[in-house]
Description:
Elements: E1 11-15, E2 19-22, H1 27-38, E3 43-46, H2 57-73, E4 84-90, H3 97-106, E5 109-114, H4 134-143, E6 147-149, H5 163-178, E7 184-186, H6 192-200, E8 205-209, H7 211-215, H8 239-249, E9 256-258, H9 267-270, H10 285-295, H11 302-313, E10 322-331, E11 336-338, E12 341-343, E13 351-356
Parallel strand pairs: 2-3, 3-4, 4-5, 5-6, 6-7, 7-8, 8-9
Antiparallel strand pairs: 1-10, 10-13, 11-12
Amino acid sequence: MQNCTDNTIQSITIIRPDDWHVHVRDGAMLQHVLPHTARQFGRAIIMPNLKPPVTTTAQALAYRERIVAALLSAIDKDGVSKFQPLMTLYLTDNMSPDEIHRAKESGLIHAVKFYPAGATTNSDAGVTALRRCYPVLEAMQEVGMPLLVHGEVTDPAIDIFDREAVFIEKVMQPLRRDMPELKVVFEHITTKDAAQYVTEADGRIAATITAHHLLYNRNEIFKGGMRPHYYCLPVLKREEHRQALIVAATSGNERFFLGTDSAPHDKNLKEHACACAGCYTALHAMELYAEAFDQAGALDKLEAFASFNGPKFYDLPRNVGTITMRRENWIVPVELPFNAGVIVPLNGGAGMNWKLL
């Protein structure tokens, strides 16, 4: 990894950022992980892949109430209680266009998530054939509600490292040809194919990029053995793809913005014969992004990526207030307590060079 760090920069202050893709789960885990997101971000797009999934406006609003209750029970420090959860619905083959109108009228639901059935954690209820959802997508296009896309095909004949590129050809291009006014977010992109597509495509499209896909390539999963805490979906890719994501994130292009895809799992489910997919980065998300942008010599591009581009795409104002990070060496906790179990944060036990104040 090329290191272009400018060690003369000792601190950076930016407008409070937003996380445009995060999993906060529910119940006891929600209570533990939500404060990590809320202390850094002004808002976050909340993923709807619970069990059962959040498929109706009523379910989304009830989930929001649980999130707000968890915030109120947290210590009101560093603006935690000012955090705004932005809710989403889980697209299914059977969703009605009427649900989209109810969601829009609520003023609290900001997008609909498209999971190809079986693509990732809790996606078994996802879409089996996108054309079945065209009436819903037409309603979304009409009211201006974004479609958030997990961009991988699930055909077992397609190599897991090729599923994003094939998705562009087989799903994304036909969808956007048929729905040219639909706002689409290509979430957690992992390949140069996706970065190029989002850069060059016509229409209302954007992409989120995670910190772990900016920092690591697929070798990280196998250093010294199988390391399940670096296993996520879409999976880490080759170094050429990581480099393409760095170029996209630091380019200043307004179509690219921050989405952590932070996904907590109990340690026992990660260190397992069939490990769950997901990296837990909410604890130190902004420090990880600062590391990636610093290594690219592009700290001056971080604020637009983290704080400006997302609100513009979602037609929301920028946050009020700032966060400050300082160049400081510290060690990521090895484990975080979670009821009777623990959650292992990405890079647990390793050193970091940036610290959120």
